[in-house]
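#lab-general

N.A. 3:47 PM
ok so I finally got the sequence cleaned up, no stray characters, all 382 residues accounted for. can someone with queue access submit it? mine expired

B.Y. 3:52 PM
send it over

N.A. 3:53 PM
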Amino acid sequence: MNDSAGGGALVGRIPVRNVWLLMLYASRLFREIPGSRRYAAEEYPDDIPDLVAEILVHAVQRRLRRNLSSELQRRQADLTRVRGRMDHLRTERRSLLQRGRIACTFDELTTDTPRNRFVKAALRELTRTVRNGELVRRCRSGAAALERAGVGSDPSAIQYRNRTTTPEVAGRTNAEDRQMLAAARLAFRLRLPTEDAGSVHLSSPDRDDVRARTLFEAAVGGFYETVLSPHGWKVGTGRRIHWQYEHATSGMAEILPSMKTDIVLEAPAGPERQAHQRLVIDTKFTHILSPAQYGDEKLRSGYLYQMYAYLRSQESADDPLSQNASGLLLHPSVGRHVDEAATIQGHRIRFATVDLAAEGPAIRERLLSLAGAHSPPSGHHR
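B.Y. 4:20 PM
back already:
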């Protein structure tokens, strides 16, 4: 099995470089790096592992110069004097006083924390992914420096590939650690199995897989939040919306199905549009069309009903944007283009695809076009 994927390899029918691009969009690192470097990554997604390695190595070196983050950890030790709290029972059972020692329990400041171990493991993981030999050397050097600074190795580090947001790692962070941890998380996600050596598949658009759906939704939401928010757009992800009803029986609220929107965009008024506009986006990692009874292809009716319910159920006189909100059912595709729309009872509903086999800049332009934005929104790359 060849799971050290190169940018020209395939995952399903999607180039690995574009899976890396989706992962970058979905990551916090995409929000942390400057706009010019984000655009370079979109232009050359083959270089994303090298970009992540460079960011992580630089962040580790900076933290080592300014002292690594540390935390208090509870320890037990037999000492010659009392430190912290004396453990009387253990001292008595082991007859420590006769040997001039006392069992103590105390808090000690240490750099051997789950977060620092996680970063160290990520540096080692990147040595299997990056192509630049000098970066591989710097990753190994950074891991060795962390070890010299007292950071141990987690015996279960291999599990980070599937468990990159553990409670120990995903807790509160200071600003200087945020980018470092974001790069470390992405480092584990970049290493994927590919199909060119007969290894297992990651889902492509014709395989409805929870991980793939989650990645696509997070990538689209992360892209819009990072690229559009600085230009006055409001971007909401994973919002729960409620049915507007009255005269309900006592148990109705418990049996009503819940509704959650993937992404909601609110565009500001400006030269491109007369007033604020709202767009509800629902992402699906399946084919946008399904085979009909007599061989033709039709839109999946369930998705249409779902979007219709999202839009009509939220209409309110107190919320002017809800009166003419638009809907977008967005599907990934490989080499196929669908872009159709209709106005249904006052709401424009669009059914469209984004080609995940396209070049990175084309994917960016497509996402911006679907949102009704231009690239870049302010006329330059920041």
